[in-house]
Amino acid sequence: MVLALYLRELGGLDPTEVGPNSGLAPGIKARGNRQVAAGQIKQEWSSWWDSLISRDPTSDAEGTVDLLADLGAGCYPELAKLASAHYGQATLYAQQHRAKFSEQSKDYIPQRMDEVERILIDHGVEHAQEVEEMQIQVIDVPLTEPRAWLIGGATIVASTSLLRDGRAFHGYIQPMVTIIFP
To answer: What pTM value is reported for the model?
Structure first.
């Protein structure tokens, strides 16, 4: 997902128009081809993003190895050109985020997972339920604003800044739990 958001910003797409309505932190300078029709990259990126968020996030953790093949096979020619031209920098950005997350997440992730557990218990979802087991998965993305959104059945994408703020996190996640576990 970080690679997709990186390509969105490289392509000069306005975050308020496509995908999560917040830019990456730190920001990326747009470098899209000015000769490409303005809507071409936007249309391709939106379609690709929809396909990414409809996948099972556990099936391929980040997709870095197959990014170019995925774009080429997915009928996204302009997006594939952009990804090919900036592949090294895009993967470096994603790897740096992953390393930073690994280093710093131990300071806030345990508290957020405890918060999710409290929300589930308050909502009446117990660990020992005999119903079909469902796990909530939280994916961290480095956005400029605290944001979270629900994708798929029980996957929540949340910004790093939201994950660091317990009170705001609760405000975003609690309504999502009522959607996941009606």
So the answer is: 0.82
Count of C-beta atoms within a 10 Å radius of residue 127: 8
pLDDT of residue 132: 58
pLDDT mean for each 10 residues of the chain (182 residues): 90 85 85 69 90 72 62 85 90 91 90 91 70 78 91 88 93 92 85
Contacts of 164 (CB under 8 A, 6+ apart): 108
What one-letter code names the amino acid at 111?
Answer: Q
What Cα–Cα distance (Å) separates residue 17 from each residue in 38, 82, 105? 13, 19, 30
Domain boundaries, the chain: 2-101, 108-180
6: Cβ contacts below 8 Å, ≥ 6 apart: 24, 28, 90, 93, 94
